[in-house]
Amino acid sequence: MTEMPRNREIRRAARYALKGNWTQAVLVTLVFTLISAAAGSIPLAGLLIVCPLEFGFMLCFLRLVRGEDSSEMVGDQFNVFSKYGRYLGGSLLVTLYVILWTLLLVIPGIVKSYAYAMTPYVMNDHPELDIDDCIHESRMMMHGYKWKLFCMDLSFIGWAILCIFTLGIGLLWLQPYIEASHAKFYEELKARRS
Fold this sequence. Notes:
With about 190 residues, the chain is an all-alpha fold. It has one domain (about 5-194). Helix content is about 75%, strand content about 0%. It contains 11 helices and no strands. The chain has helices at about 5-20, 20-40, 45-65, 75, 85-105, 105-115, 120-125, 130-140, 145-155, 155-165, 170-194. α1 (about 5-20) crosses α11 (about 170-194) and α7 crosses α8 (about 130-140). The longest helix is centred in the N-terminal third of the chain and has 23 residues, at about 45-65.
């Protein structure tokens, strides 16, 4: 088994996937952000719409990293609504587990959020698995790699701070970079599980 690439190599691969696709990536981020902000102001709507839509948003970047057609990214994020119950259930169950671990202590909650981070991708790639099995598979994939993903997320902090000076507009470019990096991270983990 080959060694997992360094985080900077994963980020470089994410930037390469985004090359020539930035317009679609920024548009899908803008649409997701606007819907999240609007629905988030109504608690139940936020739960019922934003939770599964977040999974759809993440899966857009998985397709992008895989080199699939990205010309319809804005519309593609809504594909999760064709399997609404599955993605809503997955999102709610992951959220519930993280909340329960966080009630125990904050650190275990953070650790578990990283353990469950690959769940949307697993749900996409394994429609035959039930939600709990997808969460379990994410936990198995992330065994030994939670710290690595955490460090990769920390590496974006400088960019996030710079986005403050753009009144948040820079996040429309930063968020696709982060999502593409997470999707590439998943692809690398998946290659190691095969």
